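2024-03-11 09:14:02 DEBUG pipeline.ingest accepted 1 chain
2024-03-11 09:14:02 DEBUG pipeline.ingest length=352
2024-03-11 09:14:03 DEBUG pipeline.predict start
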Amino acid sequence: MAIHEACSVTLPRIGKAQRGGIMLLAAPLTFCLVALTALAIDVSRILVARNELQNAADAAALAGAARLGSYIAPDWNSAEEGAAEAITLNRAAGALLQTGVIDLGFWPIEGGGPMRPHDEGSPAPLLGENPAVRVTVTLDEGVNGGALDLLFAPVFQRYLASIQASAVAVIATPGFAGEGSLFPMVLNKCMFDQYWANGAPINANQVVRIGSAYHYPNCSAGQWSSLDLFSQSAKVTKTLLSTGNTVELTLDDEVFIQSGTETSIYKVVQDLIDAKGGSWDVLIPVVDKADLSKSGAVPIVAFAPFRLTAAVGGSSKYVEGSFIANFKAPGTSGGAGGGAFFGATTPAILAD
């Protein structure tokens, strides 16, 4: 019986001879009040269980994506194990979840799906895709303890509620760098054009020197930058070594190239490298300008990690280090769309 039918009552006209008629309405009105209250309780239970399932799906998808590892060659087995383990750590409707459906593949950057299975087509992400883990968890007959038992809805011939939630998590190339996440220098895209291929340095042992006097074939390796502060001051750059960028930066935002930096800054960098045990992994904006000898604003085209191992002042003035193949860049996200993959990926983030 539908609730609108059960609670449909025609009120009688109450006259002197019908004053007892109101008592005739007591039973159906009481039934309707109890039924509506019962229905509200069941709806609340369904919403709570649905929220618990969504939290479980979100947590499991993020746990799986966190174990993808390489952006170019994801570790699908590890990601699946991570997602499966996380499912069983979550509860819904008062009981631990036991299982879920885990899909592995590549998710469109624009979102909305569909997912391209990892074993169909290219084993690496295509342009506009990110490695992804999708988790679906359900309360239904024979799954995770069964559908939710309804306490009061059986009055309306509804005994069980099947509930489902799904989440997609990805790792992405950074398109957004939060405050404090960037080192005050730029790398030149032409360096990656020459020394980077298939998601990794062509020569993993290659040492790169960045400084005004260091050029590679038709390419300045990089230069100091005051990032978002648009200053030529070395004092500003020293401050940025500790604070990083002072505002959020995204692809196409401009950073300021400094044409020269005093010797003292190299000692500061070397001291920081020594304090970190001899190497310092940093995230650096990438720009696309062959000659970086003149100061000025240049747009960011990507973000890349770099492992600093030395900083030399005096007449040489350079920092030395190497490219990094896989680096989880804290404080970053895909933003409106990540740039080229030059070794940095975001932490696992929810995409849908």
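2024-03-11 09:14:41 DEBUG pipeline.report The chain has a mean pLDDT of 88.
2024-03-11 09:14:41 DEBUG pipeline.predict end
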